[in-house]
Specification:
The chain is α+β, with helices and mostly antiparallel strands. Helix content is about 20%, strand content about 25%. The termini are far apart.
């Protein structure tokens, strides 16, 4: 073989060998960097229910490669003693926004968000076991009674929608649904409301009868209602509604001027006759 060709082939082989080695080094370093880029985060060692206070035995750790969830807790000391505001499941990373603020404890108080209030509403047995007063459901609050002030007395008892799309925070002493999601007989339901709504509910509970009605949790639209009175229930639906009053033109008669009468005496010899003539003025 030609010596010149041999030198070219040997040089090409050497260059290819050097390039392969460099590529191997670069790719190998990146693979090693990716394998070692993990973060240790705190996870739930068992299923933890809402309202519980975290203990050391409830927590564990695991390694997560790549990006970690936003707000993930990396130190168990930052989670111990804090209340759980939503259910946690075994192996799930514990996020800061799933726990109550430090020092707020557990139970019902831990589930109340900043600026919100838990207002207790007394319900009767029918409402209490109706099947929807379970934590997490959404309800509307209706009030019925006799409004004070100058209201039409013929309307009788009236009902109004006081609040809409209100979350049920707890039913009785339970802030968790049971395994089958069924309602239990309760006398008090806690609703998650604003301070202003809490004032309205407190006043309504003393002066009116409160009724809770279930709504779809995905339906967040506020319905525009005008309420209803007792007279509306007994109104005759077949009677047509009165139409708009029509204006009627009233014509006033103008008295005609009185006619003028002229008396003419006619003498014919010794005879006299009277003749009357009527003249109308225009």
């Amino acid at each position: 073989m030609n010596r010149r060709v041999s030198v070219i082939l040997f040089s090409a082989f050497a260059i290819a060998l050097v390039c392969s080695y460099l590529v191997y080094r670069v790719v190998g370093k990146r693979l090693i960097a990716v394998q070692h880029s993990t973060t240790r985060v705190v996870v739930a060692a068992t299923d933890i229910k809402l309202g519980s206070v975290l203990r050391d035995v409830d927590l564990g750790t695991t390694e997560i490669a790549g990006n970690v969830p936003k707000g993930a807790i990396t130190n168990t000391k930052d989670a111990v003693g804090r209340g759980v505001i939503s259910n946690l499941y075994q192996g799930e990373p514990i996020l800061d926004n799933r726990l109550a603020a430090v020092g707020s404890g557990g139970g019902l108080a831990a589930t109340i968000g900043q600026g919100m209030r838990a207002c207790a509403v007394k319900v009767d047995d029918v409402v209490g076991v109706a099947g929807f007063v379970t934590p997490g459901m959404r309800v509307d609050v209706l009030i019925s009674g006799n409004p004070p002030g100058p209201v039409n007395p013929n309307e009788g008892t009236q009902v109004r929608t006081l609040l809409q799309n209100i979350q049920v925070l707890s039913a009785g002493t339970d802030i968790q649904k049971d395994d089958e999601g069924k309602a239990k007989p309760v006398q008090v339901v806690n609703l998650l409301v604003t301070p202003e709504q809490a004032e309205q509910l407190s006043l309504a509970s003393n002066q009116t009868h409160i009724q809770l009605v279930l709504r779809n949790p995905l339906d967040t639209e506020v319905a525009q209602t005008h309420g209803s009175g007792m007279s509306n229930l007994f109104a005759d639906k077949n009677v047509a509604a009165p139409g708009k009053p029509q204006s009627v033109a009233i014509r006033r008669s103008v008295p005609k001027p009185a006619a003028r009468v002229f008396l003419i005496q006619v003498f014919n010899g010794s005879k006299r006759s009277d003749e009357k003539f009527v003249s109308e003025e225009k």
